[in-house]
Design brief:
The protein has 78 residues and is an alpha+beta fold. Helix content is 21%, strand content 36%. The longest helix is centred in the C-terminal third of the chain and has 16 residues.
Length: 78
């Protein structure tokens, strides 16, 4: 289990895996549960990075009960 200022990632609860990312169960400090998608930068090209930023921008705008909701996002050096 790892924590930052807002979330605790439950590393032993892998929900899914993709070619450049893994999805884990996590919770916030109020015990609300979420899925967190962790993308490895070593597999991301400049074109893919631009597409990812576009996807995040769109998800921030969308609010619907029929699609996933982006709660938060951040980027680190890794």
């Amino acid at each position: 289990m790892e924590t930052n200022n807002k979330y605790i990632i439950l590393w032993n609860e892998l929900l899914g895996r993709g070619s450049s990312s893994n999805v884990y169960k996590c919770r916030d400090l109020s015990n609300n549960y979420f899925a967190v998608k962790i993308i490895s930068k070593k597999y991301i090209t400049d074109k893919s990075k631009k597409m990812l930023y576009n996807e995040v921008s769109i998800l921030k705008l969308l609010k619907s009960e029929y699609i996933i909701n982006l709660i938060d996002n951040f980027e680190d050096d890794e």
